[in-house]
Design brief:
17 helices, six-stranded mixed sheet, globular, alpha/beta, about 500 residues
């Protein structure tokens, strides 16, 4: 192993009454991929903020390329060649891809006018996008990109810095399997050119695939390290939560009912020529797999009334429904936990209490005046039931971790009378402990005869949680797989259209 490019020595960060990091030491060498794991709240974000110059450590030393520093500024970090790919996308929707990648670092021309050279910006961006094998160009407006495509723009931005160390924080949380494979190939390419990578992810199969070494934080402390030949799922989970975790699959106690939500020849606006027929039975968790762009989310939006149905019928327990809006769906007990909880599932500036009761507000305001005591009682009940980690339901949603934000989204629906819940990417960006809690809750809902549709790009999740799986390909159902037939190969075979519908 070559001399470390970066060394953190006994880094401690304290806030009033809280120790976020305690004597953490970490080194990263050129051409090394270090997997950094730990549950939300373990201290990973604080450590990365220290590396980015956003937060100053309370004590400890930082060695960058042999030079000692007590702290880094943002400018110091960038000059040292440290770049970040954040889970939370930091892009301007009103600008195109090229402008976002070189924001604040635009090539200039025009002499004393010092104008942005747009042609040169596009020229520099084109090979970065080609390297990532994306389907959009430098001139594409970011507003037109999907979440997965925006994530690739963030990665291209980091590559544009010619970084010596790239820190990737949940970089695949919105990517398809093929895009994830491409990213792992890019990481291998960067490593071959001497670039160091710190890879932070809750998707442990990816950590295993790319990391040369794994280090784990728990409660602000470094609790262990795994060499390449020791990197296995059970070992990583044991480090993260301090114990073994049983299989995520919780078998049903009872057979599912034949009744539930039925889609008959449903055609969505995204795929008007491809009908979908399927039943989500009460008492089961039906996984919905497929590549991004296959129509999974457009189907969920149509079920919830966000997008209109072009044709077909939706029925519940044998009764045909008219769903022209989310209000219609909510009135029938059909709820959606959306893929992007921050933009579509929560009002981040509102407290937990208001987020929990907003969809059913008239229950708490029968005379046009909101009964805040009744709101608080319900929100507190859900906080306890779901284990939302916060001292008060007056805490704003924006201050919660990803797992706790997802629990608030679920609390909103559980405070009502769910008949059907569609989970779109239910554990994106959530740590392994919170994932287990979400899976347990889904099973409890199924046992209460709620019909569960789980859309997920995480193959481990689809295989590990579902009782049955429907696979979409280009807007239609390519086939169904029973529990005994589930495998990554069988799902992918249907997802790419290699089999006829079952």
């Amino acid at each position: 192993m070559s001399k470390p490019f970066l060394e953190l020595l006994d880094i401690t960060k304290t806030y009033p009454g809280v120790t976020a990091l305690s004597n953490v030491s970490l080194s990263v060498s050129p051409a090394e991929v270090v997997g950094l794991i730990g549950e939300n709240g373990a201290g990973k974000s604080t450590l990365m903020k220290i590396l980015g110059g956003v937060v100053e450590p309370t004590k400890g030393r930082i060695m960058v390329d042999g030079a000692e520093r007590s702290a880094l500024t943002v400018t110091d970090s960038m000059k040292a060649g440290i770049a970040f790919v954040h889970q939370e996308l930091n892009l301007f929707e009103n600008l195109d891809v090229a402008a976002n990648i070189f924001i604040g670092r635009e090539p200039r021309s025009g002499g004393f006018l010092n104008l942005v050279d747009k042609a040169e910006t596009r020229r520099r961006v084109a090979p970065l996008l080609q390297r990532l094998a994306v389907d959009f160009g430098p001139d594409t407006p970011v507003a037109e990109l999907s979440i997965a495509e925006r994530q690739m723009v963030e990665i291209a931005k980091a590559l544009s810095l010619d970084a010596r160390l790239i820190i990737m924080d949940e970089p695949t949380s919105s990517l398809t399997l093929s895009e994830t494979d491409r990213l792992l190939s890019v990481i291998a390419e960067l490593k071959s050119h001497g670039v160091a990578i710190v890879y932070i992810s809750h998707r442990l199969n990816e950590v295993k695939a790319c990391a040369d070494r794994v280090v784990c934080l728990r409660d602000g402390k470094l609790v262990g390290e795994l060499a390449r030949d020791e990197i296995e799922h059970p070992a990583m989970i044991r480090l993260m939560i301090g114990r073994d975790l049983k299989s995520v699959y919780i078998p049903p106690k009872h057979a599912p009912k034949e009744s539930g939500l039925t889609l008959t020849d449903v055609r969505t606006s995204a795929f008007p020529d491809f009908p979908v027929t399927m039943t989500i039975r009460r008492g089961e968790i039906l996984g919905l797999a497929g590549l991004i762009g296959s129509g999974r989310t457009s189907l969920a939006r149509a079920i919830f009334g966000i997008d209109p149905l072009v044709a077909g019928t939706v029925g519940l327990d044998g009764q045909t429904l008219t769903i022209a809006s989310p209000q219609d769906a909510i009135a029938k007990g059909i709820y959606l936990a959306p893929e992007d909880r921050k933009r579509s599932g929560l009002i981040l500036e509102f407290p937990i209490r208001e987020n929990v009761t907003l969809a059913d507000l008239w229950t708490y305001a029968p005379s046009w005046l909101i009964k805040r005591d009744a709101e608080k009682t319900m929100a507190d009940k859900q906080r306890v039931r779901l284990g939302i980690k916060t001292p008060s339901v007056e805490t704003t949603a924006i201050s919660l971790s990803g797992g706790n934000q997802q629990k608030v989204v679920l609390a909103k629906w559980l405070s009502m009378r769910p008949q059907v819940i569609v989970f779109d990417e239910p554990t994106r960006g959530i740590d392994v402990g919170a994932k287990a809690e979400i899976y347990q809750l889904m099973r409890e809902l199924a046992e209460a005869d709620v019909a569960i549709l789980m859309i997920s790009s995480d193959m481990e999740e689809v295989i590990g949680v579902s009782d049955r799986v429907a696979v979409m390909h280009e807007g239609s159902i390519a086939g169904f797989l029973g529990r005994e037939d589930l495998s990554e190969h069988s799902i992918l075979e249907l997802a790419v259209g290699h089999k006829a519908a079952a």
